[in-house]
Write a structure and sequence with these properties.
903 residues, alpha+beta, five-stranded antiparallel β-sheet, 28 strands, 45% helix, flat, disordered N terminus
Length: 903
């Protein structure tokens, strides 16, 4: 509390008497505070305590001073306290938290503590802390405990004023003590878990703690203005009912003798408890301010009780839910007093026993217990009231109509905090039908004990309920008890059990039974036993729901051995055929690789050679175009100068100029040079595309821009994309995503693009022939007349549904190329055409070597097979064709962005 009455007062600096008075005053002040207050030195020893703290921990001040937490508290609690105290010392922060604390009587408390650190003039650090017992604060009616704190603060103000009046002469020791007292008072205010605001009699801000600023989110600049009106405006903006708040504030300032406590609701949903009281020098018997006018102002306490209110609401809701559970549970809930008379009787108890609540309240237990069971029940009652433990029993009971039934009883004594038993709570479940079912089950088990076949019974969850002796012998289990520890999967190998779950159980669920050959496992040898097996489910007669599974099996090992010998010879023949087939496949694979390698080598050398031979003369032409252009411009400029200075040339020059059409020559010559430049650029682009496609210098895997490879392939195929006398121009739509460089064999990947794009062009040419017979209207989705257009880049393509182009929507032959980056390490290239599509039977063989649908001499059947190997084997990716007849075809290439991450 940094009150100006304690700072820089000349009267304090002039006092030279009573040097020990300040320390006594400090003790008196902290002892007047009802919250426990303590001060520790840097060695975590108590150096200052108030009476409330001593009472709280149950030890005297003489016992505590100079000791630490380890001398009085449990080891675990002391470790927590020391760790948090050390954090305050080292980080110099204010720390608020909740802790568990055990007092001298062994009673555990949940406490809220606030600790802060201050340093005196000599550099010594101290920790100031305050404690609040949460359990006590959360009890109803004890929230008003802040009243005592306000009174304590008023007394502190009075004593501080008395000290100021007493100290008359200057003395450095007294001044030092006063500063230390002020620091302790300030630390005390900051250690409070409440937000504190002090307004003086002039309605200006005297003091506030950090908690106040934190609760109301008030800036330091606003507090420094000391303007209560500005502060009030800031607070009102946060309230749901600002008018009511303001009216209360004005009323209290107009009636300074009154105190007030209420709750205020913020727009943010928070709820604050507000307490206000006057700060005065002394009060009369009725609490009124004395006529001497010693009124210092008003103190305001604010506490965030949002969580408390929420907990209170949750408690009410929990109590309501508990009442609903008691009323709606199928278990009978009965509460007895210590005389075992009924206090609570829920609806389930009414249903089970037939008595209404009105009929049972106050009646003893004998009314529902038959005579022959009362001695046993009395023994249970005695144990409940004396041994303090719960009990479980199965008893016979009688209903109102005299029917005898069997019930399970779960009983627990109700023990008050002082240890006294005040009643008993019972939960009752009727199990009469279950008991009868158990008896029927025993009869059923007895009927199957003498069977020579394996007979096993399992629950619907697979837990073994019974296996007859013949079954135990067949699978090698020593006893029924051992069998009951098993489940159905233990009786079969993993493969057999998977077959049972995936194939046989669905048939049993559908038809009610299954019969056929199956396999059981011998527990001793682990060998599978072939059996003729019948499986069926037993259903409940009333609900029709299955409640157990039954297996009847007979060992057919000898019969299976003869059959297996025959199957073994057949398997050997099948294996030989499979080996031959595998050898043929490997041969085709090797042949395909050789053809691909030779083809790529020859094609790459040819393309690279052509590109090199064209590149040299083109570079010569291209390199001289700019100088030629400059020379021509210089000559034309010189000619212009001549014409301007000699406008009347000799007749011979004038005739020659007219002969050569000088004016036209001057305008056309620059355009000719520009056309030559454009042509040279076009040739250079073609050469660059040829070199990019060949990639002779990139035989190893490296990171490349696959868009360049696609563009170079399109450049090479440009002549096939143009219109001819048999079809219109093929439109190319490029939808490129923003892709990083991709690790790949660039030359081989370009060959894949070439194969797929060439097939797409072939399909579109076939489609145009069909369109001549079945024309499609050109009114839908018109496209520009250029043969290549690039759509806006996209990186959101995720399914093949985004690229398909049926003929009905795209009457112009179209190829769409989409690229996409899939996180974290996958690149997708989709090449889609709107041709005639591919039938399902053809699509199944599409990537087989030497398979082709083209006429003899036009296709080898190796293109897509080689492409598939390049993508799957060389790049660890996938190549997929998505097509339906009449819906076009889409080839989806999926390769890793970085090869080593794909493994």
């Amino acid at each position: 509390m940094n009150h100006p009455r304690f700072l820089d007062n000349p009267a304090q600096k002039q006092n030279t008497e009573q040097q020990n008075f300040s320390l006594a005053f400090l003790h008196e002040m902290i002892n007047s505070i009802c919250d426990p207050i303590f001060v520790k030195d840097r060695q975590h020893r108590w150096v200052l305590l108030n009476d409330a703290y001593c009472d709280f921990v149950g030890h005297s001040r003489e016992e505590l001073i100079g000791k630490s937490d380890y001398d009085f508290f449990l080891q675990a609690e002391a470790d927590v306290f020391r760790q948090k105290d050390e954090l305050v010392f080292t980080a110099n922060i204010t720390n608020e938290n909740q802790d568990l604390f055990t007092d001298a009587q062994g009673i555990a408390h949940l406490i809220s503590t606030k600790k802060s650190c201050f340093e005196d003039e000599t550099g010594n650090k101290f920790l100031v802390g305050s404690i609040r017992d949460i359990i006590l604060q959360n009890e109803a009616g004890k929230v008003l405990g802040v009243t005592g704190r306000v009174t304590d603060f008023t007394e502190l103000m009075q004593k501080s004023e008395a000290l100021r009046e007493t100290l008359k002469k200057p003395d450095q020791q007294v001044e030092s003590d006063l500063h230390r007292i002020n620091a302790l008072l300030q630390a005390q205010q900051e250690a409070s878990i409440d937000g504190i605001l002090i307004i003086n009699q002039n309605r200006t801000i005297e003091s506030s703690n950090h908690k106040f600023s934190q609760l109301w989110q008030i800036s330091a600049a606003l507090l420094q203005t000391r303007d209560d009106r500005q502060l009030l405006g800031w607070v009102l903006d946060q309230l749901i009912n600002p008018d009511e708040f303001l009216a209360k504030v004005e009323y209290l300032y107009q009636h300074p003798q009154e105190s007030s406590r209420d709750e205020i609701f913020l727009k943010s949903g928070k709820i604050f408890e507000r307490y206000s009281a006057p700060v005065c020098k002394e009060q009369g018997a009725c609490g009124e301010i004395s006529s001497s006018g010693d009124y210092y102002g008003r103190i305001w306490y604010f506490r965030d009780i949002t969580e408390y209110k929420q907990a209170e609401a949750e408690l009410r809701a929990s109590q309501q839910r508990l009442a609903l559970v008691i009323e709606q549970t199928p278990l009978a809930i009965i509460e007895w007093n210590t005389n075992f008379q009924v206090e609570t009787w829920n609806r389930a108890a009414e249903r089970i026993f037939g008595y209404t609540t009105e009929e049972m309240l106050g009646n003893p237990f004998e009314i529902i217990v038959p005579e022959n069971a009362r001695k046993h029940v009395n023994e249970i009652i005695t144990a409940l009231l004396t041994q303090r433990g719960g009990s479980f029993s199965v008893n016979e009971n009688v209903t109102k109509d005299g029917r005898t039934m069997v019930c399970e009883w779960y009983n627990n004594p109700l023990v008050a905090p002082d240890g006294e038993v005040i009643g008993v709570a019972s939960m009752v479940l009727e199990i009469t039908e279950r008991k009868r079912a158990e008896e029927e089950q025993q009869k059923f088990v007895a009927l199957i004990e003498n069977s020579s076949d394996f007979i096993g019974i399992a629950s619907m969850s697979g837990q073994i309920l019974h296996v007859n002796p013949a079954g135990l012998k067949m699978v090698g289990i020593s006893s029924l008890e051992a069998a009951k520890t098993k489940s159905m999967d233990d009786f079969h190998s993993p493969e057999a059990f998977a077959e049972l779950i995936e194939q046989i159980i669905p048939l049993i669920s559908q038809h009610g039974f299954w019969q056929g050959e199956f396999r059981h496992r011998h527990f001793q040898t682990g060998i599978e036993i072939p059996t003729d097996c019948s499986l069926f489910m037993v259903k409940h007669p009333e609900t029709g729901e299955p409640f157990c599974q039954v297996a009847v099996a007979r060992d057919i090992t000898e019969r299976k051995q003869a059959k297996e010998a025959l199957l073994k010879s057949e398997a050997q023949l099948r294996q030989q055929a499979q080996d031959l087939k595998e050898t043929l496949r490997e041969l085709q694979h090797t042949q395909t690789q050789l053809i691909q390698s030779e083809k790529m080598s020859s094609l790459g050398q040819l393309v690279a050679g052509v590109a090199h031979e064209i590149n040299n003369p083109v570079n010569f032409i291209y390199g001289n175009l700019n100088p030629a252009k400059e020379y021509t411009q210089d000559l034309l400029a010189l000619l212009q100068l001549y014409q301007s200075h000699y406008p009347q040339p000799v007749p011979e020059i004038e005739d020659f100029a007219e002969l050569i059409e000088l004016d036209f020559l001057k305008s056309d010559l620059p355009q000719i040079l520009n056309s030559m430049n454009v042509g040279a650029d076009r040739i250079r682009e073609i050469v660059l595309s040829l070199r990019t496609f060949s990639r002779l210098d990139e035989a190893e895997m490296k990171a490349v821009d696959i868009h360049e490879g696609i563009d170079s392939t399109l450049m090479i195929l440009q002549s096939r994309l143009k219109a001819n006398d048999q079809r219109s121009t093929i439109e190319i739509i490029k939808e490129y995503a923003q892709l990083p460089l991709v690790e790949c064999y660039a030359g081989q990947l370009n060959q894949v693009f070439m194969n797929i794009l060439s097939n797409a062009i072939d399909a579109l040419e076939e489609g145009d022939k069909g369109n001549n017979q079945y024309p499609i209207p050109n009114t839908q989705f018109p496209m520009p007349n250029t043969s290549l257009r690039e759509a806006a880049p996209t990186a959101t393509l995720s399914t093949s549904a985004q690229c398909p182009m049926p003929n009905a929507q795209f009457p112009i032959s179209t190829i769409r190329i989409c690229t996409q980056l899939l996180k974290p390490n996958q690149v997708i290239i989709r090449i889609t055409d709107n041709g005639l599509g591919i039938p399902e039977d053809v699509k199944k063989q599409l990537f087989d070597p030497f398979f082709t649908t083209k006429p003899i001499g036009k296709g080898t059947g190796m293109g897509l097979a080689i492409s598939y190997q390049i993508i799957t084997e060389r790049h660890g990716g996938s190549l997929e064709c998505i097509s339906q007849p009449g819906q076009g075809a889409e080839f989806v290439i999926n390769i890793p962005l970085i090869q080593h991450l794909s493994t």
